[in-house]
Amino acid sequence: MAAPAVPYRPPATPADGAHLYLPAAQRLGDTGSCRAAGGWHPDRTPASGYPSSASSSPPAPRPRTCPIGLDRPRILATAASPSAQRPCGRCDRPADSVHRAEPGLSALPTARPPPPPPAGRPCRRPAGERQQRGQPSRSCLIWSLTITAGFAGMFSYSRTILHSRRVILALARQALLSRFAGTGAGMLWTVFQPLAMVAAYWLVFTYGFRVTAPDGQPFAVYFVTGLLPWTFLSEALAAATGTVTRNSFLVRKIQFPSEVLPLVEILGASFPHVIFFVLTLLVLLGHGILPGIWIWQLLYAYFALAAFALGLGLALSAFNVFHRDVAQSITPVLNVWFWLTPIVWSLDMLPPTWRSLAALNPMTHIVEAYRAALLYGHPVWQPTLHVIAFWLITLTLLFCGYRSFMRLKSEFADVV
């Protein structure tokens, strides 16, 4: 026997606006929407089986509370409070459409667009991210963090050098002895090599090209004072570039600070530099030139030259581990760099525009500092442009070289 048919009874229409205040569990249901809960929805019309509201006039503004959140009820949006928050039941329809569908409720207010930037001063950032008065700009913060990290890195590197000073000196002595090991002349090659270089250039430029020094000095004196720092740089860079690959047995040791290896090669090149300095003094005395009281500036010139060579050596030694072409390219680059440095020629030969451009060459300041201490007898901080350009480039090289070396240091043992 079939069950008696139950006539369809549509659910009673709630009071006007009361659908907004149904409990959250009834509104959300299983699917998180008002339709899934089986409750009345403002979009359902009598054509779909739901009777419309019997009231034809808008309801009186009645703020109600919603039980969602239990002990934290919220005031829902009504006609009396159009700027209130959206209805709490996470309905699948926007709150604005619910307000438009229900008589007596206005649409939720829309956000105002950000004000346009002032004329003539376009702002690329949104209005909410613009710099407020009294706050540092983003570029200032980046520069301050970069400078702070640079000083912190240099302090850490200086502390490592101080703790490993005995190891550094022992390795520098060993590198110098191994350089001339097995030769008959031994350490005398540190005298023969610069002496042969000076003699060759002196014969070519003095008797071949008939070149005279631009300031009236003998060409041999002018040339040897400029060649003195250049030989140190070329030997230090050539040795520091391959120092990590040559000392692979030390790099594989966990406790060994491999970042001191470029400094070891620079100290190893200092002994031939001292020998060349003695030869330079002999050349000056042979031409009747005696250095004055400004000779103490050689300490500054040597320190500046060593700092510049250390920054380049740190970067080149790290890159040469992964790209062996770096070591092969050092010689041709140094040959071109030699002629771009005022060793044979003088800055007075250039027009003022090119003279300022030549100041960007760090070796320009070094060569002029050696000549100021040995030949001219004036302070090394003249001209000031060369000093500022040199130290900006040198400090940047030290910072970038140290950061590059420390970032690639963990992969050295797997490659060498």
Automatic annotation (TrEMBL):
Ranges where the record places region Disordered: 30-135
Keyword Cell membrane: yes
Annotated keywords: Capsule biogenesis/degradation, Cell membrane, Membrane, Polysaccharide transport, Sugar transport, Transmembrane, Transmembrane helix, Transport
Extent of Pro residues compositional bias: 111-120
Residues in ABC transmembrane type-2 domain copies: 185-408
Pfam families, per the entry: ABC2_membrane
Compartments where found: Cell inner membrane; Cell membrane
Residues annotated as transmembrane: 141-159, 180-204, 219-240, 260-287, 299-322, 329-347, 384-402
One Gene Ontology cellular component annotation held by this UniProt entry: ATP-binding cassette (ABC) transporter complex
Amino acid composition bias (Low complexity), ranges on this chain: 46-57
Plastid found in the keyword field: no
Ranges annotated as biased composition (Basic and acidic residues): 89-102
Matching InterPro entries: ABC2_TM, ABC2_TM_bact-type, ABC_2_transport
A molecular function (GO) term: ABC-type transporter activity
Alphabetized PROSITE patterns for the sequence: ABC_TM2
A biological-process GO annotation: lipopolysaccharide transport
Topology relative to the membrane: Multi-pass membrane protein
Source superkingdom: Bacteria
Similarity comment: Belongs to the ABC-2 integral membrane protein family.
Designated name of the protein: Transport permease protein
